[in-house]
Every structure is written in structure tokens, then in C-alpha cells.
Design goal:
Layout lengths: L10 H10 L5 H17 L2 H7 L5 H5 L4 H101 L1 H26 L5 H5 L2 H16 L2 E6 L8 H20 L5 E6 L6
Parallel strand pairs: 1-2
Length: 274
């Protein structure tokens, strides 16, 4: 610009176009555009020549022939218009791109809002399903516990009836066993209502809890129950342990109540998946 005596100042627009690519806020872009036009006006020959004496472009080309002079003047006009057109096109493309990006962000926000609403609905449904599963689990747990203890008490009372005449001491011992079984069952029911696992599993490992349950059932019903585990250590997740405990409890209860079993074998082994 200095070498041409301000005859060309279009480079200002390209400098500010580079600056615009780093500006994101709309008001900041407007400020940059305004500053660009101010610099363009200040860098114009007509304004600069008022302060600094310099030769105009027309004086420089006047040393050429008339044809070349018109050619240079025409080329200068074409370059200035092209420069302005390129800059304005760039600004328009930048604004359109910015608008499309805002629309895309708006669409993404709407999709995110819908996804959040669906997630909220899913969370509510999952919570309802969880409550239903928990109610079913509690109902099944109370049923298993009561069935187990009532079966033991029923069979134990029948045994007491037989022993009352022949062996009062044995009948008394049997009644004490039945009382212990009833109290233990009552504790299990209370814990089930409180959404806790069986009392035995609260106090001891799974294997010990199974042995205690078997011992109480054997004493209360005169049924011989044998337990064998082929696993070195019965340690699983809490849900798995509770499930195993309930399976053994329900199985022995049904075997005694419906099958009138006199001898029950319980075996636990591990089989690796193929």
C-alpha cells in the first residue's frame, strides 16, 4: 500500500477476513466488519493525500500511452470490484455457515431434550418395574419362609402328638425345637418385610446358614437331611446366595409336605459352561 501510494488498499479486507475466521460471537464479527470498513476508508488515497503528499495512481499511469493508461485504470477498477466481491462473498458464506451451525445446534438441542424426556420416562418405568419385582420378591420370600416354618411346625406337632403318651420328655424337647423354629421363622418374615435377606444369611456365611436350616428342619420333622458341597468355598454375590438358600428351603419344604420324605439329599456342585 505504501509503495503504491495508497492506490490499492483491498488487502485490508483480506486481513480482516482472516480475523473473522477466529471470531465466533455475532456482535464481535459486526465490530470487526465495521473496523474493516473504517480502515478501508482511512487507507484510501483521497483521505491519506490530505495529510501526506503523494502521487495518485492516475499520475503514475499518465506516463504511458493513452491505450495503456485506460487499460491500467480499467484493471484497477476490476481488481477493486473483485476484491470487494470476494470479501463480501466470504462474509456471506461465513454468516450462512454460522446460521446453519446454529440451526444444527438447535436441532441437536431438541433431540437432546427429547432424549432426556424419553430417558425420564424410561427411568420412571424402570422404577415401577423395580417396585413390582421387589413386591413379587417379597411375596415369594414370605411365602417360602412361612411355608417352610409352618411345614416344620405341622410335622413337629404330629410327632409331639405321638410322643405325648409314650415319652413326655421327648415330646417336651420336640416342642422346644418347634418353638425355636417358629421364632426363627418369625424373624425371617420380619426381615422379609423390611426388604432384607434371611436372618441366617445376615449373621453367617451361606454354608453355615444352610447347615443351620437343615438341622432345624431335621429336628422339627424327624426327616434325615444330608448336605454335601463339592465346592471348596460357598461364596457368591448376595443375590445368588439368597437364591440358593431359598431353593434349598423350598425344596426341602415341598419334599416333606407333599412327598412325605423321610430322607433328603442336597448336593451342590459346579459345572463350567462350555
Amino acid at each position: 500500500m505504501a509503495n503504491l501510494d495508497m492506490a490499492y488498499n483491498g488487502v485490508i479486507f483480506f486481513v480482516f477476513a482472516e480475523i473473522l475466521s477466529y471470531v465466533e460471537k455475532s456482535w464481535s464479527r459486526l465490530a470487526v466488519l465495521f473496523l474493516a470498513f473504517v480502515c478501508y476508508l482511512v487507507g484510501n488515497y483521497q483521505l491519506v493525500s490530505i495529510v501526506i503528499p503523494m502521487n495518485s495512481f492516475e499520475i503514475w499511469v499518465s506516463f504511458y500511452s493513452e491505450t495503456m493508461e485506460r487499460f491500467f485504470l480499467a484493471m484497477r477498477t476490476i481488481c477493486e470490484l473483485s476484491n470487494m466481491l470476494i470479501f463480501l462473498s466470504y462474509v456471506v458464506i461465513l454468516l450462512v455457515t454460522d446460521r446453519e451451525e446454529n440451526e444444527r445446534i438447535s436441532i441437536l438441542n431438541e433431540q437432546l431434550q427429547k432424549a432426556n424426556e424419553q430417558l425420564h420416562l424410561f427411568a420412571e418405568e424402570k422404577e415401577q418395574m423395580g417396585e413390582t419385582r421387589e413386591r413379587n420378591r417379597l411375596a415369594r420370600e414370605i411365602h417360602d419362609t412361612l411355608g417352610h416354618i409352618l411345614t416344620g411346625i405341622s410335622v413337629g406337632v404330629d410327632a409331639v402328638m405321638v410322643l405325648m403318651d409314650t415319652s413326655p420328655d421327648a415330646a417336651k424337647t420336640q416342642l422346644e425345637t418347634i418353638g425355636d423354629m417358629a421364632r426363627s421363622g418369625l424373624n425371617d418374615v420380619r426381615r422379609s418385610v423390611r426388604k432384607l435377606k434371611p436372618d441366617a444369611l445376615e449373621r453367617m456365611p451361606l454354608e453355615n446358614a444352610i447347615h443351620q436350616m437343615i438341622e432345624e428342619m431335621s429336628k422339627g420333622t424327624n426327616t434325615k437331611i444330608y448336605f454335601v458341597s463339592y465346592i471348596d468355598e460357598l461364596r457368591f454375590d448376595a443375590d445368588v446366595e439368597e437364591t440358593l438358600y431359598r431353593i434349598i428351603q423350598e425344596s426341602t419344604t415341598n419334599a416333606i409336605r407333599h412327598g412325605r420324605a423321610k430322607e433328603i439329599w442336597i448336593r451342590i456342585s459346579e459345572k463350567k459352561a462350555r
